[in-house]
Structures are given as C-alpha cells and as structure tokens.
Amino acid sequence: MKLARYTPTLNLGRMADLSPLFRQPFSGFPAMAQLFEDFFPVSTAMASRLAMDLSEDDDNFYARFEVPGVKKDGVKVEVRDGVLAVSAERHDKEGDTQSTFTLSRSITLPDSVQDDAISAKLEDGILTITLPKQEKRKPRLISVN
After folding, report:
1. Which residue in 6, 11, 63, 93 is a FRET match for 28, CA 20 to 30 A apart?
2. What does the DSSP 8-state code read for residue 24?
3. pTM attached to this predicted model
4. Which residues of 121-140 are buried (b: 16+ CB within 10 A; e: fewer)?
5. In tens digits, what is the pLDDT along the chain, a chain of 145 residues?
6. In what order do the strands lie in the sheet with 75-80?
7. Spatial contact of 128 and 66, defined as CB atoms under 8 Å apart
8. Cα-trace Rg, the chain
9. Pairwise CA distance, residues 113 & 110, whole Å
10. Which own/partner pairs from 83-87 qualify as long-range (CB within 8 Å, at least 24 positions apart)?
C-alpha cells in the first residue's frame, strides 16, 4: 500500500468571493441595510472622532491626538468634572467653496491626575496633552533590608 501526504491547497479565488459578504452583509436586502445603518451609523460616528493614543510613564499620562491640517487656534482642550474634552476644527477653502470639519473626543481622566497642571502642545499635526500624576499616586521603590 502506498501512502501519499495530503497537502490542502488554499483557493484564494473562493475566499475573495466571500469578501463583499463580510464588508456589507445586508447588501442584498435594501430594507435591512437601511435599518442596519439607522441603528449602527458606524461611518458617521467614526468619521467624527479624533484618532487617539494613550500612554504613561512614572510621572505622567500622555494623550496624543491626530489633528492634521488644524492650526493652534482651531484646537480646544477642556477639563470639566474629570473629563478631558478635545475638539479640533479645520477650515478648507477651494475656489469659491468653503468647508468646515469638526472632530472631537472625550475621555474620563483617572483620579490620580493633577487637573491644574495639565499642558498641551501641538506639533506637526500631533496634539500631545501631558497629564501629570499626583505625588502620592506615583509608584516608588521600596528597598528591602
């Protein structure tokens, strides 16, 4: 008896046929597609939010927002009741048409942030907000005797 090793082939042509099904699952049913978009307006909600990255070190938390093409006077940073609200407004003018884009994002701040020492810097389309930690909340090294 002769044994042959089975090597399945991956048919990428068939996989590509399934791609539209996953991207727009209700495209064959117009009424369902409209109902889905009414309850889950993903494209509108995601388009109006600022892209953000959070990080921390021993002394500070950092919130970085992508605000390409926005000038310093178009950025508004506000802290109220433990919530950091950032909004950016960009004005574009092409010929006689003028358009305005407004993006915003809000995050809840940890209790360990000093509200009165928050600083912001806009450089090369990246808004960096430094959120200093309170002294009593900073980690400290304890030596073992």
Report:
1. 11
2. S
3. 0.60
4. ebeeeebebebbbeeeeeee
5. 566 666 655 555 555 555 565 656 655 666 555 565 555 554 444 456 788 899 989 889 999 998 888 889 999 999 998 899 999 998 888 888 888 888 888 989 888 888 889 999 999 889 999 999 888 766 778 889 7
6. 75-80, 83-94, 97-108
7. no
8. 25
9. 6
10. 83/107, 83/108, 83/109, 84/108, 84/109, 84/118, 84/129, 84/131, 86/50, 86/127, 86/129
Is the CATH number of domain 50-137 2.60.40.790? Answer: yes
Specify burial of residue 33 (Cβ count, 10 A radius: 0-12, 13-18, 19+).
middle
Return d(Cα 1, Cα 25) in angstroms, integer.
48
CA distance 121 to 128: 5
The amino acid present at 105, given as its one-letter code, is R
